[in-house]
Amino acid sequence: MNEVAYFPQIESIKKAKENIKKIISETPIQKNLRLSNEFDSNIFLKREDLQIVRSYKLRGAFNKIQSLHSQSKVNNGVVCASAGNHAQGVAYSCSILKIKGVIFMPITTPKQKLEQVQMFGGDYAEIKLVGDTFDDSKNAAIAYSQETNAAFIHPFDDPLIIEGQATVGLEILQQLENKIDYVFIPIGGGGLAAGISSVFKQLSPETKLIGVEPKGAPSMKTSIKNDCNTELEKIDKFVDGAAVQKVGDLTFDICKSNLHDCITVDEGKVCDIILQMYNRDAIVLEPAGALSVAALEKYKEEIKGKNVVCILSGSNNDITRMEEIKERALLYNGLKHYFIINFPQRAGALRELVNEVLDASNDISYFQYIKKNNKETGPAVVGIELDKKEDFDSLIFRLKNHNFEYQYLNTDNKLFSLMIG
């Protein structure tokens, strides 16, 4: 396998589909009228968010574990590492096959995903929280596998995992009769992109395959640019289902050959799409699940009049994250702005800001101030929400016109993190 490049073949993928058909839902593919009108194209959503464990990950996990089970290679159980969705797939597979599974997850994993893993695995799943990133958990899981001889179930860099995820591509081609011009595929470790792209390269080679990563974790894009699988020193973990420091060696080789393009989208844009899909389409998505739709804006000219498929890869979102998601979306869209404002320590200074500087379309959403009796001025951290981003220039004009000294925080990452968190 190390000397000869591995590329999933259609027969192996069809075999995987047969292996998993008893527990997998053939998820629907739906035309979204709102997005189709917005981008003047035919936008189809492949609803893997409606899978049994609310993500596509069950396909690869069950395909792999079922294969080991049939070969009597799971006497010591299985072990995996995951930021959440792969863990749920492994846990559910262990429950169905009655195999002990130990699942290593980052300490930062949302509580909702931890609860889901335990629910799907029941008595057959044991969770161990280790490290801050997927890679920390992976190293711990591999060490556990070596110590106990439990079979390690890789979340993406394994032929049987890739072939299981590839069944999404087979379903898409079976479900849509029209020619498919573009497929947008979210990328974390690359298993889904490697699998789907292999199906299309063999059965629909004219389709352009676009991989999508979060801006803060561009592992595949960086690797393709460098022409070698590259580990990132630091990543933004917000899009937890797609935030890995290094993609798989197998998945890198496949994606490098198959993808037409690999792009990144801002985490703020992802948050904006999560809110849009929930408010306008009643679709709940996790950050990784929104990547494909978030990418459409970057291809809006190319996809006009085309048939486009977006993979909605998962819906395991924690409701407690919604405030942060809203905040990031507002910041991305230029609708929320933070300042350190030096208030004169006299009566009426705050009233002047409210009455003379802010207008009816502005709202103070954050205010932190500590009075210093021995100072002429006192700083306050103020967050202001706007109705339209175009209102920002007039807000700045009024601040200056009324002689308020201020420091703008949105563009100062270090100070913003220190003051706002």
Structural class: alpha/beta
Proportion of residues in helical segments: 40-55%
Order of helices and strands: HEHEHEHEHEHEHEHEHHEHHEHEHEEHEH
The radius of gyration over CA amounts to 24 Å
Q: What's the helix count?
A: 16
Overall residue-averaged pLDDT value: 93
Query: End-to-end span in angstroms?
Result: 46 Å
Main sheet: strands, sense, barrel: 6 strands, mixed
| Total beta strands | 14
- Which word captures the global form? globular
Uncertain ranges: none
Name its key features.
single chain; 421 residues; alpha/beta; 6-stranded mixed sheet; 4-stranded parallel sheet; 14 strands; 41% helix; globular
What order do the helices and strands come in, and which of them pair?
Elements: H1 10-20, E1 29-31, H2 33-38, E2 42-47, H3 57-70, E3 78-81, H4 85-97, E4 101-105, H5 111-121, E5 125-129, H6 134-148, E6 151-152, H7 159-175, E7 182-186, H8 191-203, E8 208-214, H9 219-226, H10 249-258, E9 261-265, H11 267-281, H12 291-294, E10 307-312, H13 322-332, E11 336-344, H14 349-357, E12 362-369, E13 377-386, H15 392-401, E14 405-408, H16 413-419
Parallel strand pairs: 2-10, 3-4, 3-6, 4-5, 7-8, 7-10, 8-9
Antiparallel strand pairs: 1-2, 11-13, 11-14, 12-13
Helix pairs in contact: 1-3, 1-7, 3-4, 3-7, 4-5, 7-8, 8-10, 11-13
